[in-house]
Design a protein that fits this description.
The complex is a heterodimer of chains A (270) and B (69). By secondary structure, chain A is an alpha/beta fold. Chain A has one domain: NAD(P)-binding Rossmann-like Domain (Rossmann fold). An eight-stranded mixed β-sheet of chain A has the order 3-2-1-4-5-6-7-8, with helices on both faces. Chain A starts with 5 loop residues before the first helix and ends in a 32-residue tail after the last strand. With 69 residues, chain B is mainly β. Helix content of chain B is 10%, strand content 39%. Chain B has one helix and seven strands, in the order βββαββββ. In chain B, strands 2-1-7-4-5 form a five-stranded mixed β-sheet, with no helix packed on it. A two-stranded antiparallel sheet of chain B has the order 3-6. Classes of the chains: A alpha/beta (270), B mainly beta (69). Chains A and B meet through strand 5, strand 6 and strand 8 of A and strand 5 and strand 7 of B. Bound molecules: zinc ion. The site of zinc ion has 7 residues of chain A, from helix 8. Zinc ion binds next to helix 8 of chain A.
Chain lengths: 270, 69
């Protein structure tokens, strides 16, 4: 096990104080490898919290550059980062918070032909993408590669999250069989989102990641957490593995990865 | 019949109702952006018309949420 220095013991003291984390849990965090798909509204708080928590290796997948319209919610990007690669902008802040970690950047959009190679090196994936083709691709790839992940989605004042342990708990496709027709999906610019919603949902995903690594508590598996910030109502809807799920069911009809047509957010990637 | 929809009990003056009528009654404007779970099973979209909801059923409308950026 890792031998923490006096300074590290201080840095992580509020974790170490937790009976469910302790020095052992902190050591597991230091040895963990987590991939964050999308350094946007959800990915930004996830990246910051995982870096602060001392997750040893964090990968970021994002091919986009920072735009001024991102700054209302994507809190790891600052005004001076406009035009920079989001992955670099996120990495800069993560290393400023915690220079002891390693941050890998993947300037790519996930596709059927590269996703397995990218997620293969990680213990856990945080799915913070903004489009259904990417959400289904991450689900299917994680099921096939048996990599646990946490799904997150936000829209207007609402958010949803679920953690998936392949082979054990319900997957995204158990609930959402296939991407909705592209013309039914409201575009990003049409729908809008309250900035702080991204922080709420991203923090939930970061907490799930830290729980998975340390083994603390019970994961958000076989359940969909949904909230509506307009009245601050949270619900945890029980789910179960569906035997007719096209990817994790008893006779899966999907045996290869699919690049779906992009919906409303036509140009948006991870 | 009494049906629980998204955690709330609702009364209907009928003994059974197809899933598509329940969606309409609950003013779900874009059913293609919703998955329907009936007593723990996800209902196939093509079967909304011939799947009946009856007394004491539990129904969840699960919304697709695509945003993340
Ligand atoms: Zn499944």
């Amino acid at each position: 096990m890792i031998d923490f220095s006096e300074e590290q013991l201080q840095r992580y003291s509020r974790h170490i104080l937790l009976a469910d984390v302790g020095v052992e849990g902190q050591a597991r965090l230091a040895e963990a490898r987590v991939l964050v798909v999308g350094a946007g509204g959800l990915g930004a708080p996830v990246c910051l919290y995982l870096a602060a928590a001392g997750v040893g290796t964090i990968g970021i997948v994002d091919a986009d550059c920072v735009e001024i319209s991102n700054l209302q919610r994507q809190i790891c990007h600052f005004t001076h980062n406009i035009g920079d690669a989001k992955a670099d902008s996120a990495r800069e802040k993560m290393l400023a918070i915690n220079p002891e970690i390693t941050v890998n950047v993947h300037y790519e959009y996930l596709r059927a032909d590269n996703v397995l190679g990218i997620i293969g090196g990680y213990d856990f994936v945080v799915e913070g993408t903004d489009n259904f083709p990417a959400k289904f691709l991450v689900n299917d790839a994680c099921i096939m590669a048996k990599v646990p992940f946490c799904h997150g989605g936000i829209l207007r004042f609402r958010g949803q999250a679920m953690t998936v342990i392949p082979g054990e708990s319900a997957c995204y496709r158990c609930v959402f069989r296939e991407p909705p027709p592209p013309d039914a999906v409201p575009s990003c610019s049409e729908a809008g989102v309250l900035g702080a919603i991204a922080g709420m949902l991203g923090s939930i995903q970061a907490a799930e990641t830290l729980k998975f690594i340390t083994g603390a508590g019970r994961l958000l598996t076989d359940a969909l957490l949904t909230f509506d910030a307009k009245d601050m109502e949270f619900r945890k809807i029980p789910l179960s593995c569906q035997e007719d799920c096209p990817v994790c069911g008893e006779a899966p009809e999907i045996d290869s990865l699919i690049d779906y047509e992009q919906g409303g957010c036509a140009l948006a990637g991870a | 019949m009494e049906v629980t929809v998204n955690g709330e009990k609702k009364r209907y003056d009928c003994r059974a109702m197809p899933v598509d009528a329940l969606l309409a009654d609950n003013r779900v404007e874009a059913p293609e952006m919703v998955s329907v779970q009936l007593n723990g099973r996800i209902i196939d979209r093509q079967r909304y018309r011939d799947t009946l909801v009856v007394d004491r059923d539990e129904v969840e409308f699960l919304y697709f949420m695509g945003g993340g950026r």
